[in-house]
Amino acid sequence: MRVLVVGSGGREHALIWKLSQSPEVSQIFCAPGNGGIETIAEIVDIGAEDVEALAEFVDIGAEDVEALAEFAESRDIDLTVVGPEAALAKGIVDLFEKRGLRIFGPTKAAARLESSKAFAKNIMKKHHIPTAQFSVFDDPQAARAYVRQLGVPIVIKADGLCGGKGTIVAHTLSEALGAIDLLMEDRIFKQAGERVIIEERLVGEEVSVIVVTDGVTALPLLAAQDHKRLLDQDRGPNTGGMGAYAPAPCMSAELAPLVMEQVILPTIHAMANEGWPLKGVLYAGLMLTSDGPKVLEYNVRFGDPELQAILPLMKSDLVPILDDATEGRLSNVSCEWRAGSCACVVLAAGGYPGDYAIGKEIQGTERLADQKDAFLFHAGTKRDRGRLVSWGGRVLNVVGVGADLEAALKRAYNAISEIHFDGMIYRKDIGFRALKGPVAKA
Ligand code: AMP
Ligand code: GLY
């Protein structure tokens, strides 16, 4: 089987790493890839040499959906797997399906669960899926009046895609009014902030529940916990995600079936009943409140960095899972997991999620080559005349696997001590909610 993976982040690197272990896969292409995918043999653990022979780098942007379809057709790709949301929101799945090409992911209409928060909130409201109380605004004056009336704390969200940075949890009135200005008047996220959702602030622990779905049934992956804030102890601005671990103990054996019953299956059935069956991934970002689990957001693709902490624990072959979901026969499939825990710590460029420098030489990655159960998934990296350099805000994902979360985190943080680039920042407290204390030295 020839597989094309679309994207260039740590999630896509993890996907390729896992797909390359499948006996069904003969060749993997990645568009546009990154500095790690390009020389994927850097990844330790299984079959690095085989991986190098398998993977090929394609210079097509992840949102250039027409060119991707041309490529898939001309190279006889059997299955395309899409990492990032932008290509899905642009209709890559519709285009591929029209051309008779197999692709894992939702149609453009179904992808609105992620690409429009107003659409998602309205689906939840109509189908009684638990979520925060909300109102939708197109007019900044009305939004300001609503905020003044409700008071703080309050949450302001851009309707459209903002790379995980379009939500502001405001604790003061001036913060809330400032957020409305930034999104609706200054248009810092362009059209994505033309419309805003204003919602009640929820309190509790967050968890990412990610399932693969064929539009009818759902196959859950291990529950994971992301760390969206930039700084330790969940301070600072929201980011795309600064680290993750799996399994998340807050998703207890009692809670897991409840989430399936109250959130995941009702969402899948709601989309099917509305005429937009959801195939691919359903990712529910949940707040575990004292009132039960409530949906903060939906995504229709794998979480990043959650997937980097989930796939190293997956024992089963991923290919039949993606394949059967695409073909609508997921009920035949199950998934086995390794015991233990996995932790992923993101190394970012100083300044992220705001402005940051690129082109900084990254040193020490080769020292991880002989470490067992600690390895790297690249994100914003590039090979430049033989050197590995930073090329994005989130640069590297350092992953550790261990018998428990503490052991997994120790492996990841030990590995980080080998790596350096100018301005490198990372959180020292990944997993703190589960451990009740940091593993890394501040
Ligand atoms: P979202 O863009 O909706 O995923 O939100 C990003 C982050 O903002 C979430 O992971 C939460 O940490 C926080 N957040 C979003 N909605 C709420 C809410 N209603 N109450 C409290 N925090 C929220
Ligand atoms: N880790 C958050 C996301 O993938 O949206």
Task: Give a quick summary of the entry.
With 442 residues, the chain is an alpha+beta fold. 30% of the residues lie in helices and 26% in strands. Strands 12, 15, 18, 19, 22 and 23 form a six-stranded antiparallel sheet that branches.
Explain this structure to me?
By secondary structure, the protein is of the alpha+beta class. It folds into four domains: 106 residues, 3-Layer(aba) Sandwich (Rossmann fold); 68 residues, Dna Ligase, domain 1 (2-Layer Sandwich); 123 residues, D-amino Acid Aminotransferase, Chain A, domain 1 (2-Layer Sandwich); 95 residues, Glycinamide Ribonucleotide Synthetase, Chain A, domain 4 (Alpha-Beta Complex), CATH 3.90.600. It has 15 helices and 23 strands. The strands form six sheets. Strands 12, 15, 18, 19, 22 and 23 form a six-stranded antiparallel β-sheet that branches. A five-stranded parallel β-sheet has the order 3-2-1-4-5. A hairpin with a 2-residue loop joins β20 and β21. α9 runs antiparallel to α10. The longest helix is centred in the middle third of the chain and has 20 residues. The protein is globular. The site of glycine has 7 residues, from loops.
Low-confidence parts? 40-53
The percentage of residues in β strands lies in 25-35%
Largest sheet: 6 strands, antiparallel
Q: If you compute it from the alpha carbons, what radius of gyration comes out, rounded to the nearest whole angstrom?
A: 21 Å
Q: Care to count the β-strands? A: 23
Distance between the termini: 46 Å
| Secondary-structure arrangement, i.e. CATH architecture of the largest domain | 2-Layer Sandwich
Q: What is the oligomer described by this structure?
A: single chain
* Assigned CATH class of the largest domain: Alpha Beta
CATH topology of the largest domain: D-amino Acid Aminotransferase, Chain A, domain 1
Indicate how many domains the architecture comprises. 4
Helix content: 25-40%
The class by helix and strand makeup works out as alpha+beta
Bound molecules: adenosine monophosphate, glycine
Mean of residue pLDDT values: 92
